[in-house]
């Protein structure tokens, strides 16, 4: 196979899955687009017509206690819940099997030329080893899980399930643009995954150097590969490290940012991440974290739906992230000018920005 083919193929890996893999993933798409979304609308109507939704969404336990008995009494809900659970359980294993059937070829797309620095070694927090999103074996359950999860399964499925056809990650660029200053020179992207947000940061702040870090070896390896393909070597680098223990020097960044990292960790770790960001920032520098919307800002149905979905989609910390006072955590750590905002009204993500005071 010529190099040219490999490079152009890299842009649409979902299309390169063999026929069996495509058929299996198409079946998941059909379950999610046809069946579950139609049932979901029925369930929503049932909840809204029942009159049990409270105006105040701050008490999620009370909200669930009011709504769950209504939905559990409907066949539509039980059926869509089972379909959703099953489709989530099968999607990553099908991607892994499709990768392994054409391992030699996919490996050529998913392996970086350069080495990624490993700061974390075996020092991995216990919460990180949970099997998030029903991913068998967790974030590193396969030696190329970063590629399989984000580029094969997510890219292929989500583009079809949520439409858009093109850049399903465009929101990341919109969020990158919302950092408080027009330009930054040294940016750290915590929990960078396969570098989807890191690359948007590189577009938004062309004068900045960027360090992306994540605990998943397979994710940072693929992020590194993606950066090499985008000719960003030297300006963007990756390391395998915990967001709360980056190993980077004090005061070495003017922006510390993350996109959908915080809801993957318990509140004590969120606080440790803010404290690490404070240490990394020079005085006057900013944090800019985008994550799940707080339940108190959501409609009754959306708060119920987020919480139900998190419970049934292997998101163990989502509820805590959506009910913890993140602004208060930022202030406790020493940040000032703390602000929370919705990037899109009523939707995800919710941004938190704050400044490290001069002289701190
Ligand atoms: C939902 S993904 C988001 C990835 C990326 N920011 C993006 O926008 O595509 C969350 C990532 O956080 C990483 N993660 C979770 N806890 C972490 C921690 N304590 N330190 C570093 N990375 C962590 C996971 O490995 C995963 O890659």
From TrEMBL:
Keywords of the record: Methyltransferase, Transferase
BP GO terms, sorted: methylation
EC nos: 2.1.-.-
Residue ranges of domain Methyltransferase in the record: 187-285
InterPro entries recorded: Methyltransf_25, Methyltransf_Superfamily, SAM-dependent_MTases_sf
Pfam families registered for this protein in UniProt: Methyltransf_25
Gene Ontology MF, one: methyltransferase activity
Enzyme class, UniProt record, top EC level: transferase
Origin superkingdom: Bacteria
Name under which the protein is recorded: Class I SAM-dependent methyltransferase
């Amino acid at each position: 196979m010529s190099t040219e083919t490999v490079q152009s193929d890299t842009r649409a890996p979902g299309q390169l899955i063999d026929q069996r893999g495509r058929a299996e993933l198409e079946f998941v798409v059909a379950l999610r687009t046809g069946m579950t979304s139609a049932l979901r609308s029925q369930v929503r109507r049932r909840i809204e017509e029942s009159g049990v939704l409270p105006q105040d969404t701050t008490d999620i336990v009370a909200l669930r206690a009011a709504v769950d008995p209504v939905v559990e009494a409907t066949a539509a809900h039980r059926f869509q819940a089972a379909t959703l659970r099953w489709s989530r359980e099968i999607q990553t294993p099908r991607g892994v099997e499709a990768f392994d059937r054409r391992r030699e070829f996919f490996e050529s797309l998913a392996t970086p030329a350069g080495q990624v620095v490993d700061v974390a070694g075996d020092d991995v927090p216990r919460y990180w080893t949970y099997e998030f999103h029903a991913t068998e074996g967790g974030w590193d359950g396969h030696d190329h899980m970063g590629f399989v999860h984000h580029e094969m399964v997510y890219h292929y499925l989500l583009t079809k399930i949520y439409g858009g056809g093109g850049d399903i990650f465009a929101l990341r660029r919109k969020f990158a643009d919302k950092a408080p200053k027009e330009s930054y020179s040294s940016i750290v992207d915590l929990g960078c995954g396969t570098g989807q947000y890191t690359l948007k940061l590189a577009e938004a702040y062309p004068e900045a150097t960027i360090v992306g870090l994540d605990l998943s070896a397979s994710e940072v390896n693929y992020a590194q590969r993606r950066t090499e393909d985008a000719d960003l070597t030297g300006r963007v680098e990756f390391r395998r490290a915990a967001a709360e223990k980056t190993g980077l020097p004090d005061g070495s960044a003017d922006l510390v940012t993350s996109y959908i990292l915080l809801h993957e960790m318990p509140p004590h770790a969120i606080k440790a991440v803010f404290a690490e960001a404070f240490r990394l920032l020079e005085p006057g520098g900013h944090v800019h974290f985008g994550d799940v919307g707080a339940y108190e800002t959501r409609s009754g149905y959306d708060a119920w739906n987020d919480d139900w979905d998190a419970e049934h989609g292997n998101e163990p910390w989502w509820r805590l992230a959506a009910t913890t006072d993140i602004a208060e955590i930022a202030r406790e750590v020493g940040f000032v000018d703390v602000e929370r905002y919705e990037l899109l009204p009523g939707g995800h993500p919710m941004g938190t920005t704050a400044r490290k005071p001069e002289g701190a």
